[in-house]
UniProtKB/TrEMBL annotation:
Name of this chain's protein: 12-oxophytodienoate reductase
GO cellular component: cytosol
InterPro entries in the record: Aldolase_TIM, OxRdtase_FMN_N, Oye-like
Source organism per UniProt: Pseudomonas jessenii
Gene3D superfamilies: Aldolase class I
A molecular-function term among this protein's GO annotations: FMN binding
NADH:flavin oxidoreductase/NADH oxidase N-terminal domain segment(s): 16-376
Domain of life from the UniProt record: Bacteria
One Pfam short name: Oxidored_FMN
Length: 394
């Protein structure tokens, strides 16, 4: 099934097509391509088709692209994750940097803007995998996650990752923070328009934030405030090395280790989480949810993005389920139908609940999703094979 929007619906979409200023950047509209790993980077070098893949989305009206997760310059940044990922890109060394520069140039040539997403898998990386199999995986307290979380990870993966490993040492922590800085500097050199820090989904930064994976009792753990310290140091280092590029910080309640996990249970808790991150230098929060329009806490209809904006006063991106009727984890095995919920996103922007809206799978399904939305044409369904690695239309 596909969905066509009549003209009354189109006028209700108008807030999505208003410009947005982010520092010195003016985005032509509020639609952001969400970061999506494609596993096409042999030896860490993005594949030949990657430039045209991003260029097509820019040509077809995406306001801002956030790149797929790019491994930071650290031996344990990348490896096999919960879904068996491989061929993940990096942004250090002559070839990867040159290829990313060519990609950025193509996006700019099409009038687009692109931020680099900086990624360290932390505890999610299966030990003994990735470009440097001997490097120990980075875990704040040696823990992968809970023993019985709601996860899509395979039994084989779980058997490998659940073993307790040594906690990160002070020097290991310092090394990783420095790696973020080097990669941010390379992103700047490659011409990226901004830096997006992946602080969500149970990966390294999130594993410091999360009380299940961070049970340290030194300066990096204990209270929620102390658990934000690692994220804050990364934000400061990325800001410093990025030389003025805008910094987006992605966080989430849900984790790959447990879709039902929560970092905080109340708006007051969220405020304690956000305050130090904002002080460290975040320009935009990316509140990653699987369904952007759902209430974040009992007793209010406000979404996670809405609370984030309300509490931090900073610009916020909402994401999750735009244009599709089922959430991310449902599409791992089954096809998902198109839905016309972009109107809810437009209303959220109009009412000041959030500023930007991320679109993931719908933009994999069709490079011209924005054009189709805008003209009222049929919107595409999402085939689960696209998630699993079927090459997308470039
Ligand atoms: C194939 C695929 C790869 C993804 N890779 C990343 C990633 O590299 N970094 C990240 O932060 N999120 C990643 N995500 C999550 C998306 O950014 C987005 O938050 C999620 O898909 C929800 O948006 P959607 O419902 O519009 O797809 C990925 C999602 C998909 C479908």
């Amino acid at each position: 099934m596909t969905v066509a929007l009549g003209s009354p619906s189109l006028s209700r979409l108008q807030p999505l097509f208003t410009a947005f200023r982010l520092g010195s950047l003016v985005l032509p509209n509020r639609i952001v391509m969400a970061p999506m790993t494609r596993c096409s980077a042999v030896d860490g070098v993005p594949g030949e088709g990657v430039a045209s893949y991003y260029r097509q989305r820019a040509e077809n009206g995406v306001g801002l692209i956030i790149s797929e997760g790019i491994g930071v310059d650290h031996a344990a940044a990348l490896g096999t994750g919960t879904l068996g990922e491989s061929n993940l890109p990096v942004l250090h060394g002559a070839k990867p940097v040159a290829r990313w520069k060519a990609i950025v140039d193509q996006v700019h040539g099409a009038g687009g803007r692109i931020f680099a997403q900086l990624w360290h898998q932390g505890p999610v990386r299966m030990p003994g995998t990735g470009p440097h199999p001997d490097a120990p995986s980075c875990r704040p307290s040696g823990r992968w996650g809970p023993l019985a979380g709601n996860t899509s990870a395979t039994a084989q993966y779980l058997a490998e990752v659940r073993r307790q490993t040594p906690a990160m040492s002070e020097s290991a922590i310092a090394d990783v923070i420095a790696a973020y800085g080097r990669t941010a500097a390379n992103a700047r050199a490659a011409g990226f328009d901004g830096l997006a820090i992946h602080g969500a989904h149970g990966y390294l930064i999130d594993s410091f934030l999360w009380g299940v994976t961070n049970v340290r009792n030194d300066a990096w753990g204990g209270s929620l405030r102390a658990r934000t310290r690692f994220a804050c140091e990364v934000i400061k280092e990325v800001r410093r090395a990025g030389g003025g590029l805008p910094v987006v910080f992605r966080f989430s309640q849900w984790k790959l280790q447990d879709y039902d996990a929560r970092l905080v249970d109340t708006p007051a808790g969220l405020e304690h989480l956000l305050e130090p991150l904002a002080e460290a230098g975040v320009d935009v929060f990316d509140a990653s949810t699987r369904q952007f329009h759902l209430p974040a806490f009992a007793g209010s209809q406000r979404t996670l993005a809405g609370w984030t904006r309300h509490l931090s006063g900073l610009p916020v991106m909402a994401v999750g389920g735009v244009g599709l009727d089922r959430e991310l984890k449902d599409s791992l095995l089954e096809d998902v139908l198109a839905a016309d919920n972009a109107q809810i996103a437009a209303r959220g922007i109009e009412q000041g609940e959030f500023d930007l809206i991320g679109v993931g799978r719908a933009l994999l399904a069709d490079p011209d999703w924005v054009g189709k939305l805008r003209s009222g044409a049929l919107l595409p369904d999402f085939r689960s094979s696209l998630f699993a690695g079927e090459p997308v239309q470039p």
